[in-house]
What does this fold into?
Amino acid sequence: MPKKKIKLTIDGKKITALTGQTILKVAQKNGIKIPTLCYHEDLKPEGRCGVCGVEVNGKIKTSCNNLIQAGMIIKTNSKKVQEYRKTNVQLVGSNFAREEAFKKWLKLENLPDIQELRFKPKEKEKIDCSACDISIDFSKCVLCGRCIQKCRDTQSVNAICFAQRANAMKVGTYFDKKIINTTCVGCGQCALVCPTGAIKERDYINEVEKALADKKKHVIIQTAPSLRVALGEEFNLPAGTLVTGQMINALRKLGFDKIFDTNFGADLTIMEEANELIYRIKSSSSQKNNKEMPMFTSCCPGWVNFLETFYPEMRKHLSACKSPQQMFGAIVKTYYAQKFKINPQNIIVVSAMPCTAKKYEARRKEMNSSGYQDVDYALTTREIARLIKKKNIDFKKLKNEEFDLPLGQASGGGAIFGASGGVMESAIRTAHYILTGKEFTKGLDRSGEKNIEYTAVRGIQGIKKATIKIGTLKLNLAVVQGLANARKILAEIKNKKAKYHFVEVMACPGGCIGGGGQPQPTTMEIVKKRASAIYQQDRILKFRQAHNNPQIQQLYQEFLKKPLSKKSHKLLHTTYKDKSKRV
Amino acid sequence: MQILVKNNFQTWKKIKNLSSQKIIEKIKQSGLNGRGGANFPVGKKWKFSYPVKYLICNADESEPGTFKDHFVLKHCPELVIEGINIGIKALKVETAYIYLREEYKKLKPEFESIIKKHSPYNIKVIIGAGAYICGEETGQINSLEGLRAESRHKPPYPAEKGLFDKKTCVNNIETFARIPLIWQKGFNPKLLLFSISGDVEKPGVYEIEVGTKLAKLLNLAQAKNPKAIFLGASGGCFPADPNFILNHEYIKNKGGLLGAGGLIVLNQTRDIVDTCRSIIQFFTDENCGKCTPCREGNFRLLQLFQVILSRKWTKEEFEWIKKLIQFIPQGSQCALGQSSTLHLSTALKYFKNDFLAKIE
It folds into this structure.
């Protein structure tokens, strides 16, 4: 239907707006705040909670899913609305098991404080913490359905669904299985949108605090590229603020012995992965064997779990390289331990990640080729923020500090791993150099400098496709975010509708910056701001390609010799399982 | 009963070569209204729906005290299939579904043999899984798609975006059974099937004209000392006044809904408040769970009504009951949620003293 301009009244204000918009959207655009609970910017409104009810021509209607019509007279704060809202909040509030969460929500939505709730919370099932990545506490659930929409629509995983009906209704799993026995890939998108904390990351704060207190342990933390562009939001800084220096300072104050950079691990991943890609392309063309092409990235554990669970027959396409987190851990427990003469048994590697699936990845049995588990604990951005808050550190007032060496220096190629398309772009930069001996450029930019940014793979579109010529090679690339989109690309590959060489998949919309462990709220608007901070960081770094990172060069000289060497195969590469039987 | 007329598919044979417009126009002129409860003119609905991809025959009768659909299914399945044939022809339908209530599944083979014999079209009989919400058209569409039975937000209406997001028309089973009768002599659009149960000597299904006084129906069913009637669970509670008129507008003005013609008679020995409690129990167990006001509201109402099993209400508790009765319909999205407290609001209006007696 063609959109047309119509007139309506909200709270006495005469407004002209285009048809096809919801009442809530129009009100928000005109600076009128309507409290909500189940509504989320990026999700289709379902009108479950009823909190956003407003008076439309004398009748209460939910504003999130009712469209505007010409001549509507809308009141968002009349006596009728206030009364309705109060009763609704009291009913919803009786489902918040934690009073502080309820109070926080009331404050967030500008709702009047309700002292007395009248009704006792229902008795519900106990917490399901069978999995090592996410846990579900049924008693805190208000049945807003956001998590289910994410799991079903964005991720096409369908590990959680509404079970039962009416009063017995709950967010459950099929056949009432424990979450560990479902198709759950651990991406944590459900936790990212949960308004009450009913679904959240499995918390490893206590274990980390115990390790920090242990004098015998050498506790190292590595921080992911997406953390430094999002952690500030937990301390009321605007989205997209780069807080690398303050983050390092805060982590030092928490007592970590060394603060290193996962971007270093990312640089290492690129060295291995770019070489693997070239190796695969060359061997497949010489033997006329296309079986293991295209190559898929393996940095995202949610994606790896997804492929192992739903498409186990395609797992050979996954790059054998470990993710940056795991490569980093393996290097710490070997190279670093030898170099600084520390017994690897006493090293605890903690990683600060925007991700819940990293918790699972850290615990994978294959990830111990050094004889020790590569990474001991993976914490999410939210857990790091909680640790900082617990210590009463005034984050905003902290001075900037620098990463420790040698594993704290990284290139721009590692930094952009956080955004969707980053792994691809970084791999292109390095592959170009390996194949041609020259740096990748796209001509000169406005200031006359060499422009090395490959923007075709950037942005928040679900699927991005590009073709690039490197030397004599013509590579077809695809960059995917969100697992529902991944299914589309996988179908293309299976049906031989398209021929790709290299496919990057990130389970979360926007890539790691929109990861399941990031601060709340995370919306696509916020993700865009975080992405621009990531790319800004790439621009100011001295080295912008993984292979130019001097610490990486030194690591290869002193320890690994060359990419895809025997040692790197042992330490930095891994294998994948068929997990379809698990469910 | 008009609906029990002997049927040889004579209407279908007569009109199967007519154009859609002619059929729909005839239905429009007949004055036939839908029998699912909303009383919407069938001809009008078909005219604005035309053409649709899917036609659904709603045979998921689940309103307490309503069993006239079962009667239709059992005694005149041929008429239903004939009506569906006409619907498919008139609306240019690709596939028609009969959504049969799980409890009626034993009727499925008979249906299928009639379809095989008398219908040139693709008509499928689908067995529901027993949720009350599947009787609501959008909930039923969800269920047919294999999704969780939850009501959908309207708009878009099924006529724009229904089953599998395609244009869909949903009609009640009695409506379909009435359609072939339009072309027969002496068709009376005002005749309606009523299901009567409760404190009566002769419970059952009666066919009477809309606008008849309650006294006639009570006489037919031989009610003794009637005190009140419940119009199904969600239609409201009224005194058994002999002059009460069984007509949609009249009942609407009184604050209730005639709905699908279910009538439960209560005699003088019955406790209105306690009957309301069991109806609340029904809604607490049977709502789909989607909207907080309906799900939580009915549950809290039940908690408040369970109090009277052991003691009287406090003033504050009674205030909350009144508050919830007003609140629940406001925030619910579907017709079932919106009418889930009608029995209470009408009972409170006409039997106020019964309630006041339960307060401290």
